[in-house]
Write a structure and sequence with these properties.
This protein has helices at about 10-15, 20-25, 35-45, 50-60, 75-105, 115-145, 150-175, 190-215. It folds into two domains: about 10-60, no CATH class; about 70-220, Four Helix Bundle (Hemerythrin (Met), subunit A). With about 230 residues, it is an all-alpha fold. Helix 5 packs antiparallel against helix 6, helix 6 (about 115-145) packs antiparallel against helix 7 (about 150-175) and helix 7 runs antiparallel to helix 8.
Length: about 230
């Protein structure tokens, strides 16, 4: 099923269940989605055969019939992004930020990594809040306008992708600083809740960015059309 020369972005577009497998192995299918699976495995020093086996296992175990977001009109796609990603983010970020500060304050002496993790979460929260505001003020209205013009379309593509790249760096740092969200045996309920929520946040943001980078933004290349 899986062609190693296929881009990792297209693999996730064809098989959404592969996103979780790539995420666990720190393969960036969002901001570096144009990389082939073969190149990604070489970079991460992963066995190609084993990775293909895990991806195909995920595909074979798929439950339900995920709708293909590529078939949505631009207006329907934007509505989906607002409802599925932007609205939950606005609720989740303050909660996670407060929880990270609490865990760092209580357990930072025992595990100094939690102090830096708290700083990363705060920076990620600020970055994401500014980013989704910018999308709602600049990017999404450009589609509603019908045709924002070549210069504006190019500027929107670049600025949005640059913001996505900055978010990607922070997510990578967050996963590394939390040791892939591994929870020690002595962790309290708040500690465990934080790591669970951080992994859920990472999952949602990766899928959000992937959808915009590889489905929504390419539509600006031919002029934004909002049906």
């Amino acid at each position: 099923m899986i062609d190693p020369n296929q881009t990792i972005a297209s693999i996730v577009l064809d098989h959404s269940e592969c996103a979780a497998v790539l995420q666990r192995h720190r393969i960036d299918y969002c901001c570096r989605g144009e990389m082939s699976l073969a190149a990604a495995c070489r970079e991460r020093r992963l066995d190609m055969g084993e990775m293909i086996g895990k991806l195909e296992e995920a595909i074979s175990g798929r439950r339900g019939d995920d709708h293909d977001t590529r078939r949505l009109s631009s207006s329907a796609l934007i509505a989906h992004i607002l409802l599925r990603y932007h609205a939950p983010l606005r609720d989740m970020l303050p909660f996670v930020r407060g929880l990270a500060a609490k865990v760092a304050r209580v357990h930072g002496g025992h595990n100094p990594h939690l102090i830096e993790l708290n700083e990363i979460v705060a920076e990620l929260s600020d970055t994401l809040e500014a980013h989704i505001d910018d999308e709602e003020i600049r990017l999404f209205p450009a589609f509603a306008s019908g045709d924002p013009g070549k210069a504006m379309a190019g500027d929107l593509r670049k600025s949005t992708r640059d913001e996505h790249a900055a978010v990607g760096v922070l997510l990578h740092r967050m996963r590394a600083q939390s040791d892939d969200y591994a929870v020690p045996a002595w962790a309290c309920t708040s500690y465990r809740a934080l790591f669970r929520e951080l992994e859920r946040l990472e999952t949602d943001v990766l899928r959000h960015v992937h959808l915009e980078n590889h489905v929504l933004l390419p539509r600006l290349e031919g002029g934004a059309r909002c049906a």
